[in-house]
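Section 5: illustrative case.
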């Protein structure tokens, strides 16, 4: 259910690459991952607000990279 919710919220696109994720791939764990926006290793929580659906290959390249954005 979380994967579908994220897919809909993201307009059917990978949150990292912006490429379309076909509906048939939403639940394919070899092709797509649920990623922490702010990595768990950097204090990111496991919440829907900190989650994004991404292609597995993009997630593996991202690793635990994260830049904190300063509020304006």
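Designed sequence:
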């Amino acid at each position: 259910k979380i994967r579908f919710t994220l897919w809909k919220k993201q307009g059917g696109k990978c949150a990292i690459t912006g490429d379309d994720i076909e509906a048939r791939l939403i639940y394919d764990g070899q092709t797509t991952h649920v990623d922490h926006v702010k990595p768990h290793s950097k204090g990111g929580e496991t919440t829907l607000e900190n989650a994004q659906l991404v292609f597995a290959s993009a997630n593996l390249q991202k690793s635990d990279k994260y830049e904190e954005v300063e509020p304006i």
